[in-house]
Design a protein that fits this description.
Blueprint (H helix, E strand, L loop, with lengths): L1 E6 L3 H12 L4 E4 L25 H14 L3 E3 L3 E6 L4 E5 L3 E9 L3 E3 L15 E2 L2 H4 L7 E5 L3 H11 L4 E6 L8 H8 L4 E5 L1 E8 L3 E8 L4 E5 L2 E4 L3 E3 L29 E3 L11 H23 L1
Parallel strand pairs: 1-2, 1-6, 2-3, 6-17, 8-15, 9-10, 9-15, 10-11
Antiparallel strand pairs: 4-5, 5-6, 7-16, 12-13, 13-14
Helix pairs in contact: 1-2, 1-6, 4-5
Length: 303
């Protein structure tokens, strides 16, 4: 029995672990993959206070090392469900089950797909959701990025230093991403912007060789590309925990800035929560708030 069990070892989950351990609580962190979450795919962080120009991997590693040094326990198993029995919560993974007095769900989100035929089959053969992971394979080649948020802009900027040509395709006429990143991108001579358009078809043999792009008028253009990087947003990973917390229509956990769910002793933190801003700094803030709320809950029920 742990005091606090945290599901997810991204910035929110690991920050929660740090705050919970500093409050003297026993902490178990469950993570399905590797620690760090999506931030490990960011080549350089530029908007986190006092930590500019650090890679996402280095940032995540420092968080992990700090949590471990404070005594947080990490187990790399995928959580698939939570049962709330009041004073005791049981978290089931694909291998085991664990009990805790409070739970923080910080599962973040997963890449949203285009939903095109053959998309899944072409992953690793021309389709990627991580430019920093796979960009080196397209050095000197032609790549396309689809999306309009910060991830899409960062991916296109990263690829512009590797690929001979980069297409940036967005369904709207303007971008949601940061103006500073967009300004840098506009200075790149090998980047072509294709706005008001959607990727509507993938053409491939053994690997991707071209894509078809349809604009708002219905006109179709075929672009010869070696790789397509999909950055059209993310889907919250909450589906396994709907029994213990309310989800909105988009699948995000309904919780305010206090990170409390409708179930006493169950909290949510990070990108899987309903919120206006999903950034590294707000994920860390959520972790601190959720851990503090969990500690207060445990103290209240112990009285």
């Amino acid at each position: 029995m742990h005091d606090i069990l945290i599901i997810g070892a991204g910035p929110a989950g690991m920050t929660a672990a740090i705050y919970a351990r500093r409050a003297g609580k026993t902490v178990l962190v469950l993570e399905a993959g590797s620690f760090g979450g999506q931030i490990i795919n960011t080549p350089e962080i530029e908007n986190y206070p006092a930590a500019a120009h650090i890679s996402g991997y280095d940032f995540a590693t420092r968080l992990y090392d700090q949590a471990v040094e404070l005594g947080a326990e990490f187990v790399f198993e995928k959580a698939v469900g939570v049962t709330d029995s009041g004073s005791e919560k049981t978290v089931v993974t694909t291998k085991n089950s664990y009990t805790a007095r409070a739970v923080i769900i910080a599962t973040g989100s997963e890449n949203r797909k285009l939903g095109l035929p053959e998309e899944d089959k072409l992953v690793g053969r021309g389709i990627s959701y991580c430019a920093t992971c796979d960009g080196a394979f397209y050095r000197g080649k032609t790549a396309a990025v689809v999306g309009g948020g910060n991830t899409a802009l960062e991916d296109a900027l990263y690829l512009s230093d590797l690929a001979e040509k980069v297409y940036l395709i967005h369904r709207r006429e303007s971008f949601r991403g940061e103006a500073a990143t967009l300004a840098k991108l506009r200075e790149k001579p090998n980047v072509t912007f294709i706005l008001g358009s959607n990727v509507t078809k993938l053409n491939a043999g053994k690997k991707l060789n071209s894509i078809e792009v349809t604009d708002s008028s219905g006109a179709v253009t075929e672009l010869a590309v070696d790789g397509l990087f999909v950055a059209v947003g993310r889907t919250p990973e909450n589906q396994n925990f709907a029994a213990v917390m309310e989800l909105d229509a988009a699948g995000y956990a309904v919780a305010g800035e206090d990170c409390k769910t409708a179930s006493a002793g169950i909290f949510v933190a990070g990108d899987n929560r309903t919120k206006a801003v999903r950034q590294l700094v707000t994920a860390a803030a959520d972790g601190a708030v959720a851990a503090t709320a969990a500690v207060h809950y445990l103290e209240a029920v112990s009285q």
